[in-house]
Amino acid sequence: MNIDRRKLLIGFILVDAVVVSLILLYVLNRPKAGVANTASGERVRIQLNWVPEPEFGGFYAALQDGLYAQEGIDVEIIKGAAGTPAPQMASSGQVECAIASADQMLTLNEKGGDLTAVFSVFETSPMGIMVKADAPWTSLEELWKSEATVAVEAGLPYLKYLSKKIPDSKVRIVPTGAGLAGFERGAVQGQQCFVTAEPVQMELKKVPVRVFSLAASGYDPYAVLVVTKTSWLAEHREVAAKLVRALREGWTRYLADPAKYNVAISKLNPAMSVEAMNIAAEKQRELVAPTGAGARMIGSMTSERWTTLAAQLQELGTISKQPASIDAVFWNAPK
Amino acid sequence: MNERATPGLTVRGSVDAIIPPLSVVVVLLLVWQGAVSLFAPSEFLVPAPLAVARAMWESRSALLAAAWMTGSSAAIGFLLAAFIGVTLGSLLAASRFLMRGLYPIATLLQMVPLVAIAPLLVVWCGYGVRTTIASAVIVSVFPVLAATLDGMRSTDPGLVELFAINRASRVQRWWKLELPWAIPSIVTGLRIAAGLSVIGAIVGEFVGAFAGDQSPVGILIVSAIRENRTDLVFAAVSVAALVGFALFGVVSLVGWILLRRWHASAG
Hints:
heterodimer, A: alpha/beta, 6-stranded mixed beta sheet, 5-stranded mixed beta sheet, globular, B: mainly alpha, MetI-like fold, 81% helix, 0% strand
């Protein structure tokens, strides 16, 4: 009986050893969640807040063309998903850079986020409310005054902005978690959207839609910002400058020929076809690099825009006070 | 079954029951507050208990309304789950064929991730309380069903034989023997379902509830996360837990009333 027990014990130990070895082997050799170039420079992880789509086109173009490596930095782009707390991850030091919107960053900074924006993909916010083409409303204001049901993400500052701007609102707000099925079959009449995403899906399904731009309503925060912890930026200004240079060039190349890069992006996000990505890339072109922007460098920001946003957020009660210095919330890298 | 004297709800007994968990909670809160004061993490990472208490007080009317909305959906969902669970459990216990055919399918309810099917509930039930109630039912029906089935299948064979000798009908055997025999097990299943129904209702609210001046807990949580109000997230989660406790308490009380005269679990 004793021998049996000993054999049993040895058996258990061996099985345990094999299991632990397999786990270690997996952990040590597991594929990385993100996509990185192979340069051995300063490491910069960029945490996306969404899946790979054309809104990140320039990021992947820079990767595909080896622009990060040319600058001597080792960039890893980490895919996000719904609910990925990207700016919080940058703030807590888990990644060097993350994607956020300008209002999200200012709100987080008031809670100790300590983030600085270094690059803004969108000059004009791509956020909007989508309605079917045959819907009776001709403006956001008309829609908001109707008794329509609109799917938006609760807690976003623009909801407060619209409530304040259109005080006699009767619209009924529901979450966006159910996807576009409710919009398609008419259960919701308005749907929050990124002009590069949901309207494209509808277009491909032959459902004609119109989009009421939030930027046109007066609420226009920078969107798809690259943010980093202020202390990291202070210590790695040169690295940040290299990153921004690579991003500028990446976006220039992506805007010139998005189809060249969308094939690779689509492989990272099989749910979105190359065709959809090509349409989205065309729709976002004017929002990333407006024709009337003159000599504006892609990704650069202005004090005026940040000041306007901070004032709006304070008026809405989303932040209690203005940032100590508006020029400290963003950083435009030199050419 | 255990014949025993009726236990009473004495003050001493209640105090003895409350003091240990209360002491643990107080100590944990003190440690939490101390750690936050000492390490001073960013407000959005971990709020101090005092900040959570402040958020609860400042948002008390919104939280009360949210508790009522979520609590009602959870309670209705729980009652429906209790009815469906006990009925289906009884049917499955009565027929080996039904049990073999339906039990694996019922088990699927336990396996399917609710978060994945919640958006479909909106498509099927529309926006509003129907979706949150359906979500609460789906997540809480299985423990009741399984407990009912287990309770009934463990009926003393000697007593089943006695009922057969006395030519009791199938309904009589169910009503007078199997159901009473299964009550302790059913109460256990209902206790589990009480907490789950609140979770189910909140998941349903994440995708299908109306937001507005008064919003349910699920919407409050989502809004607070978007606004980086971690203190309010904790406050809303605490309110959800209290709603769950309240449902659990009601079920426990009903269970105690039903079992106090004859079952050891009511002690």
